[in-house]
Amino acid sequence: MISGAVVVGLGLALGLGMSPGMALAQSREGTSPAPSVPKALAEKVEICAGCHGADGKPVDKTIPIIWGQLPGYIYIQLRDFKRGDRKNETMQPIASALEKDEMMAIAEYFSQKPWPDIGQPRAPKAVAQKASDAEHSVGCTGCHLEQFQGTGIMPRLAGQSREYLAKTIADFRTRARGNNPGMSDLMIATPEDDLAALAEYLAGL
Ligand code: HEC
Ligand code: HEC
Question: Which CATH number belongs to the domain containing residue 93 in this structure?
Answer without folding.
Answer: 1.10.760.10
